[in-house]
Amino acid sequence: MKSFLIAVPLLIASTFVQADNTCGKVTIADMNWSSASLIANVDRFILEHGYGCDAELVPGDTMPTGTAMIEKGEPDIAPEMWSNAMKDALDKGVAEKRLRFAGKSLSDGGEEGFWVPQYMVDKDPSLATIEGIIKNAALFTHPEDPERSGFYGCPAGWNCQISSGNLYKALNLEEAGFDLIDPGSGAGLSGSIAKAYERKEAWFGYYWAPTAVLGKYKMVKVDFGSGIDKDEFTSCTSAENCLEPKVTMYPPSLVQTLTTEKFAAASPAVFDYLSKRSFKNSQMNELLAWMEDNQATGDIAMEYYLVNNKDDWMQWVPAEVAAKVEAALDNL
Amino acid sequence: MAESSWLKEFPEMDRVDLLAIRKGLDSAYREFSREYGEVIESFFDPLLTFLVWFEKLLLTTPWWIVIITLTALVYLASRSWKLSLSVVLSFLAIGYFGMWEHTMETLSIITVCTLLAIALGIPIGIVMARSDRARSVITPLLDIMQTMPAFVYLIPVVMLLGIGKIPGVIAVIIYAIPPVIRLTNLGIRLVDSEVMEAATAYGASSTQRLFGVQIPLAMPTIMAGINQTIMMALSMVVIASMIGVKGLGQPVLKSITNQYFTLGLFNGLAIVALAIIFDRVSQAYAKRTQRHM
């Protein structure tokens, strides 16, 4: 009888929550890198067990997912959208009431830059600055041309290809003897870092954080000595037709949760959760390092995170949702 | 509960053990690449030097000399005006649409890859045709090479040799070599046993039988294998670009990530043009030499 008395209000409460949110079928973009996959899995679990959604992960990548969300209204949620990468298109999507930004998935934002391995800086601290690198260009051998030095740029077609190419021009790296190497894919780029690191070879190129690669292979961000010129970066460095790029460090990129307007309007409670759900870079680096060490996929890392960080995620959701998620976790 | 659940669920290996195996093998490979990477890299150095030299040669030679040379080669091989003319036209179109440099880069690496694949593939095919035991070992290997997703072996290769031409060549050859091996084997095995008996009766030694009877008779099948090898090598151009091989694959990758359909189509068509030229020339050459038999 007692349990019945408790169960009735709970039942009412839960139907109330569900009635409030016509959640139904939700598609979440599972981007092809670890942190985004982890966040997507956390979202899936909480939406499915906490909000009673029929949540499904669909494969994604920044540009295709962003475009699909604008043009087709699908998937519903992109949990980790590096919005600088397609700023104009996304801003237009928001203005046309097709998209809505929920919150910052990474509260510190993403870090981009040119990096060198820690062991090189330990040997010669001047390599942490761009002058030191240009002076020691001969160290950074080109894999195919003994007379030139190599600078590993961003893979073909990625947005950072434009910014890293423009900075390569602005820093006069070509005159300094550096050829811009196109690694072709993210796997190619991280593979080249891994290869250099395992053999303590020289490496100089573009990378970004938070990533498992930078968690695992300690790298130092090269200081251009210019500070961050945000206007210059948005108007020229990140633009394809920038004629005279100037030197600037990368401003931290906004990393946001993006939803379609349709979904945000239909499920305000879920949208509220998405606005609160956010990770710090230091925390994400640790999680990525754990994933790397344990070769964990997004869903295993999600379990690990949800079980071990209850204090964090419980702040993102109302108490009754948290209780349901916790119950589902116990049943795993 | 755990004891009885194997009826319903597959008795999986413990996640911890599985993880230990995966981590163990991975770190063993890291050790290996740290230990022997440089030696293996230097083993490929002559090939790399040649590849770089050949690419520079094609890139620095003025375009009209390249076109004249290629057309001359095509004419010598095929003796066909029509084919030579279409080669000139397609290269002019490639140049006009601004794909000359990328096409030359692809041309250089694919020429080397197909020549290497043929040079390695035909002897392996011959070995396979002459020994049933060799065949039973090689066939499953070929199956693996053709079906294993390229990135599964590409990333280990990148860790060992870095990104660029050499891993690209290795990837292309692994994928493209099976047809020429398979069809060389098949062609030789299909040679009529009565013809072979006759050759033996005339006192032909085993080498004479191979080069005088079996290979010439198997030639049409071998050429079909070479054709498939060329086509598959060119279809790997995009995958090779994903590990930093310069060429037509790069703009294709760019167009895939950014949905530049026209850019993708143009560069894709340039790859097709290269494939058709390679194929028609080798087939015409083979047909011409067959005619005198």
From TrEMBL, chain A:
Domain ABC-type glycine betaine transport system substrate-binding, residue spans: 25-306
One term of GO molecular function: transmembrane transporter activity
Gene Ontology CC annotation, any one: ATP-binding cassette (ABC) transporter complex
Matches recorded under Pfam families: OpuAC
Swiss-Prot/TrEMBL keywords: Signal
Ranges that cross the membrane: none
Protein name per UniProt: Glycine betaine/proline transport system substrate-binding protein
Signal peptide: 1-19
Organism: Neptunomonas antarctica
Keyword flag Signal: yes
SUPFAM superfamilies found in the cross-reference section: Periplasmic binding protein-like II
InterPro entries: ABC_Gly_betaine_transp_sub-bd
UniProtKB/TrEMBL annotation, chain B:
Start and end residues of each ABC transmembrane type-1 domain: 103-282
Listed transmembrane segments: 57-76, 83-100, 106-129, 150-177, 260-278
Subcellular location: Cell membrane
A Pfam cross-reference name: BPD_transp_1
Keywords: Cell membrane, Membrane, Transmembrane, Transmembrane helix, Transport
Topological relation to the membrane, as annotated: Multi-pass membrane protein
GO MF terms held by the record: amine transmembrane transporter activity; carnitine transmembrane transporter activity
One cellular component (GO) term of this entry: ATP-binding cassette (ABC) transporter complex
Signal peptide residues on this chain, from the entry's feature table: none
Protein name: Glycine betaine/proline transport system permease protein
Species for this entry: Neptunomonas antarctica
